[in-house]
Recover the amino acids of this structure.
């Protein structure tokens, strides 16, 4: 979903807002976030985007995605699956699309201007449900060319929400850190800080197009996305503390939950797709695993609750 600073020169006390989106403090009433159990893999999948590995074929898939705003059924099928081991979180997404298109090739381009798949990862306590909306969450967007955009968000405006020993790009006074107030929803958790200068270490992604990219004369079946996120790089989520007001605490922040998770732990993880072309007057253009009741992906409390199972796929 459209979000991000217009350029690295934007910093200070400015609050980023998405042009052309009217912000609301109200949401439609939608179904409660679904629950899902991610199974363990014994052999990591080879990332080629095809999702043909036996583990993906046996993994339980999400229900067909619904409209982000209304929760209504959608014109085309989209499904996701999640797997894990002690080293990585694995996410796969199957996208039905008769005409697969993508134009953006530069990393951290405004990928939402293409058809894209988006992944949001939040720990157990990043849902804006605690005092001041505790914690952090990660966003990844990818188009059918495999071009990615990513940003890390922390609730609140602490100068060093990930601790004073965190790298400079995770300090709120970094040129690519900016206050963020959501997209279409005035969240009661308040402001977040977006860290657009941070890249998740060790991230691996792959895309496969089942058809011919950017050829309107052909009818495509769609495309698929495969993502591997190292747990070691997600430890930052467990160290975020939005309640730590400036000045920063003198000691490193202790992790608040286990990374990698223990069997039985539950995190909040959302997968969605955004389409340039809408499919009818009631189509918001955003389809997701869990409906949000408003034009805004940044509601971790509505992300599906993903429990990490001990059973192997």
């Amino acid at each position: 979903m459209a979000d991000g600073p217009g350029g690295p020169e934007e910093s200070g006390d400015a609050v980023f807002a998405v042009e052309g989106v009217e912000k609301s403090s109200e949401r439609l009433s939608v179904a409660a976030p679904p629950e899902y159990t991610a199974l363990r893999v014994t052999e990591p999948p080879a990332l080629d985007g095809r999702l043909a590995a036996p583990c993906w074929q046996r993994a339980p898939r999400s229900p067909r995605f619904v409209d982000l705003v209304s929760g209504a059924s959608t014109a085309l099928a989209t499904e996701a699956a999640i797997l894990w081991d002690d080293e990585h979180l694995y996410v796969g997404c199957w996208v039905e699309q008769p005409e697969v298109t993508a134009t953006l090739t530069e990393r951290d381009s405004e990928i939402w201007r293409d058809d894209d798949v988006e992944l949001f990862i939040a720990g157990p306590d990043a849902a804006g449900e605690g005092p001041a909306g505790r914690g952090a969450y990660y966003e990844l967007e990818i188009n059918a060319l495999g071009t990615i955009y990513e940003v890390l968000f922390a609730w609140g405006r602490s100068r060093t929400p990930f601790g004073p020993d965190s790298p400079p790009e995770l300090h709120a006074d970094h040129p690519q850190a900016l206050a963020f107030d959501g997209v279409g929803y005035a969240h009661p958790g308040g402001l977040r800080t977006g860290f657009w200068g941070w890249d998740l270490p060790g991230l691996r992604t792959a895309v496969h197009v089942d058809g011919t990219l950017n050829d309107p004369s052909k009818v495509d079946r769609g495309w698929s996305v495969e993502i591997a996120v190292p747990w070691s790089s997600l430890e930052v989520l467990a160290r975020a503390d939005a309640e730590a007001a400036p000045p920063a605490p003198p000691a490193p922040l202790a992790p608040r939950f286990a990374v990698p998770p223990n069997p039985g732990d539950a995190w909040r993880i959302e997968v969605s797709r955004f389409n340039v072309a809408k499919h009818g007057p009631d189509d918001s253009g955003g389809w997701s695993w869990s409906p949000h009741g408003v034009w805004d992906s940044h509601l971790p409390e509505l992300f599906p609750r993903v429990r990490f199972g001990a059973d192997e796929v």
